[in-house]
Structure formats: structure tokens, C-alpha cells
Amino acid sequence: MSLILTSLILLAAGFIVFTLQKYGAREKGLPPGPPTVPILGNAHLFPTEFPHFKFTEWARKYGGLYSLKVGTGTVVVITDAAVARELMDKRGAATADRPPIHIAERTMDGMQLVLARYNETYKTLRKAAATILTPQATGQHLPIQQAEAVQLLYDFLHSPESFLTAITRYSYSVIHCVLYGKRVPRYDNEDMKQFEKITHDFSVLVAPGGAPPVDLIPILQYVPECFAKWKKECRRIRNLQHKHYFTMLNEAKDRMLRGEGNGSYMEQVFKQQKELGMSDELTKYFGSSLQETGAETTSSFLQGLVLALVAHPGIQKIAQEEIDRVVGTQRMPILDDLENLPYVRAMILEAHRFRPTAPLGIPHATLSAQEYQGYVIPEGATIFVNVWGIFHDPDLFENPEEFKPERYLLTENGTKPGVDGSALRHTLPFGWGRRICPGMYLAFDTININTMNLLWAFDFLPEVDSEGNPIPVDTFAFSKGIASAPLPFRCRITPRSAEKAKIIQSQFLEASETFSKFEAGLSGG
Q: Which of 3, 229, 363, 405 is the most exposed place for a label (fewest CB within 10 A)?
């Protein structure tokens, strides 16, 4: 009997060891990737800070399509524009999902447009976005974008040391005007304080280490709140969101009902709410999705642009000379000028390439298994498109670590002459397939207007030490997270001439009429 029992124990032990060895292993048919270990797979290798650097390193070793195992889950990383175009654009119907993010589900009820799973809720939100965020509709908001851009110049002129917060205010105010019809004239505005607190606290919560790995260990969902601090945080942030965004919505709705509407996007949503199938709760999250995404990415781009200008004064001078030839010194640039500014257009594209605001984008997930190049990507796999790795591929771009706008004058997509760059597109930083950013037309106008304005108006120079020597800026010093912005840096911002300073002052006074339409109900700034 003891021999039989011993045999059974050994058999059971062998089965457990065999099972554990398979758990975390890369299944047959998956793209290659780093070696796995039992149970963890590649979880012990998974980078928690600036993952795009490690993902790019692995891409150079394992190719433009490789896989990682996190327990039983599969992560696929794409660092090849042609692969991304095929799987994310052409097969967008199969790769339009998002991986489950329990923290976001718990905080936002799965109603946040950017993070929502590909379900009926998402389709309703996307339909609303497609209805109101058209290029034609975006053009109607150009006056307030231009007026806010003038205030940005005014703020740079009078408080150049606060340029980073001035950009943050500008980005938030533009999207707030466009969405809710209410501007934010100062950085210390109460609406902005609440918005920054909500977005910061949520970012901390969803960042690695901010909460337990609930998506990997689902049983953690059932831990009582009294023992789960992260659950209390979800509830607190959820309450802050409800209060802030419902207040914004109700103010916009009340103005519209009083006949004081100013054409904001949310007014359009209210008018078509029944037709779009939008509940009040869904409408709230719709506005919050567009505001959080639009304000953060635009601010990050403009701050990164200033950083690049400070680091590359020679390039800045070439762009300014082109601006001066086309625009002159007696007026500010207008959007139509961009057509005659090829170097400035190239600079904008290069700024996107050099330091993309979302180096890994936002992960997708497969709705069905996909076969590609002899590999099988399983249903439910998480997909990262490594935008950083694509834009810094030395096979595509000459000296990719250098900031060189002229590369986009040589070839349409900035690639080496003779290299096929047809899989690249200028909207690549704005996402893929059915998840491409619906507000990109608004972002284009904002980026184009401000790039021209800043080059026309100011010189951006490094700060100097006590002996007058320039202090170099660090073009790699960026924040962590899905959206990446430069860490605080110092520079000297000076008007290029007294005449231009006077034009800024004059244009700021003239902008008051446009501002007045968006200042109803403002209190304390």
C-alpha cells in the first residue's frame, strides 16, 4: 500500500511540476520573445518605468513583432510600421478592444471613451465623437483657439519664467472652452485645480505600484474595502469626478437653456442626446474623456517643442527666418500661412517623431485570434504599438536620436532616401484603426497655430550659469506614464523685437471680445 501511495504522490508531484513549468511558458505559434520562466513568464522582466526603451531594445533583438508572457496572459509588441498598419488599421475590427483595467472600470464604470472596452457603450461614445468632432465642426472653434493662443504669448511676454504652467493653462482652457463653453483665464483657477487633482490622483493609482495587480490576480477584487486602500482611492476619485464633471455639464446646459450658449461641443451633445443614446452619466464621461486626453497631450507636445527649440538654437533660427519671410513683422501668423512654411511643417512632424507624447500609445486587445506572418496572436492578447521604437528605428531614419526637421523635406515621411516609408503616416502619434484619436483635427489646429506663434514672437535660449555659460537642457528628462511630458526645465524666453511685443499686447486686448463669450459665470479667475 505504501508503495502505491508513494507512487501516487510522486505522480501528483510530477504533474504539478509539469503544470507549473507550462504556466507562464510561451505557447507554440506565438511570435518570439525573451525567454520565460515558470509561473511568471516574462513578468519579472517587464519594465515598470519608461517601458518603451526596453521594448525597443527587445525589438532590435527579436524583431518588429514579438511576444511577452505575463502569467497566462499574452502581450504582443509591434515595432514595425508595416505590421502595425496591417494589424491595427486594416484589421482594426479585430484589434479595437482594450485590455481589462479593473481600476478604470471601478472608477469610471467602463464609460471612459479612451479606456472603454469595445462594446456597445464604447460604440455609443464613439458615435457621439464622430458626430461632433468633424473637421468642419473643428473649424467653428478656431476663433477661441486663436484668442487663447494670443494669451499664451501674452503670458510668455509678462511671466516667461512660468512658461510651463502657461502652456498647461492654455491647453486646459482651449479644451474647456470647446467642450463646455467656459474658459480658464488663470492657472490658479479653481476648475483647473480640481481637474489637475483628479487626473494626477488617477494617474498615480493606475501607475505600476499604485494598486495591487488586480487584472493579473482577479481574486483581489473581492478583498473588503476596509483592507484595500486602493478601493477607497477609487471611490474618492470617482466622487471627485462626479462632482467636477457634472458641475461642468450642468453649467453648459443651463447656459444653453437660458439662450446664452456659445456653440460648445457639449451643447451639441445635449441637443442630440436622445438621438445618440447618451444618458446623463455617459455624457459626463464623454466630456471627461475628451478633456483629459486633449488637454494633457497638447500641453505635453508644446512643452516638448519648447525644449527642442532651446536645445537646438540653429534649427530655431532657420524656422524663424522662414516665418519672417512669409509672415513679416507687422502681423501675427494665421493658420493659412502654414501652407507656405515647409520647414515649420517639417519641424512639427519632427517634434512628434523626436519625442512622441505617448511613446507606447494606449494598449489595444484582440477580439479574435489573428494569424500573421506564420504566427498566431490569440484572442484577448494585449497589443502595444511601440511608437517610440518605430520613430527611432535607425533602419528607417538617419541618426534618429538627432532633432532634424529637414529629414521631412527630403522624403514625405522623414525616412532615409530610398527607404520605403509608405507604412508611416503623419497621424501615427494619434493612434490606430478604430481607436484613432477623434479629436486630432482640433489638436492639429492647436499645434499648428502655437508653433507658428512661438517661433514668430520669441527666442528660446538656454539659461546661463554665474559665468554666463549656457546650461544645457536634458532632452531625455521626461515624466513617467502613458503620456510623457518634459520634466520642469529652465530657459530664457525673450521677445524677438519691441514691435512684436506691441503686437502681442494689442492682439490680447482685441481678444477680449472673443473671450467674453466664454466667461459667463467665471468667479475668482
A: 3
Torsion over CA: 283, 266, 333, 337 (sign) = positive
Cα separation of 239 and 284, whole Å? 13
Answer for the pair 478, 295: CB distance below 8 angstroms, yes or no: no
* 384, three cell numbers: 502595444
| Dihedral sign (CA 268, 273, 274, 276) | positive
- What is the dihedral sign for C-alpha 132, 138, 140, 145? positive
Strand partners, 66: 77
Which three three-digit cell numbers place residue 373?
A: 506572418
pLDDT at 505 > cutoff 60: yes
Give the CA dihedral 385, 304, 470, 458, nearest 10 degrees: 150
CA gyration radius for the chain?
A: 25
Residues in binding site:
437
- Binding residues for heme are 437
pTM reported for the whole predicted model:
0.91
pLDDT at residue 447 greater than cutoff 60 = yes
* Ranges of each domain in the chain: 27-516
Q: pLDDT band for position 523 (50/70/90)?
A: low
Residue 218 exposed, middle or buried by CB count within 10 Å (0-12, 13-18, 19+)? exposed
Whole-angstrom distance between the N-terminal and C-terminal Cα of the chain?
Answer: 85
Q: In Å, what is the CA distance from 411 to each residue of 339, 354, 416, 418?
A: 17, 16, 7, 9
Averaged over 116-135, what is the pLDDT? 89
Assigned C-alpha cell, 209? 505600484
pLDDT tens profile 394-439: 999 999 999 999 999 999 999 999 999 999 988 888 999 999 998 8
Q: What secondary structure letter does DSSP report for 333?
A: -
Q: Treating both helix axes as pointing N-terminal to C-terminal, what angle do 190-206 and 163-180 enclose, rounded to 10 degrees?
A: 100
Rounded Cα gap, residues 167 and 96, in angstroms: 32
Query: Does the 27-516 domain belong in CATH 1.20.5.170?
Result: no
Pairing mode of beta strands 382-385, 73-78: parallel
The tens digit of pLDDT for each residue in 61-120 reads: 999 999 999 888 899 999 999 999 999 999 999 999 999 888 888 888 888 888 899 999
Cα–Cα nearest to 204, from 119, 129, 280, 103? 103
CB under 8 Å to 2, separation ≥6 — which residues?
none
- The 10 Å CB-count burial string (b at 16+, else e) for 501-510 is bebbeebbee
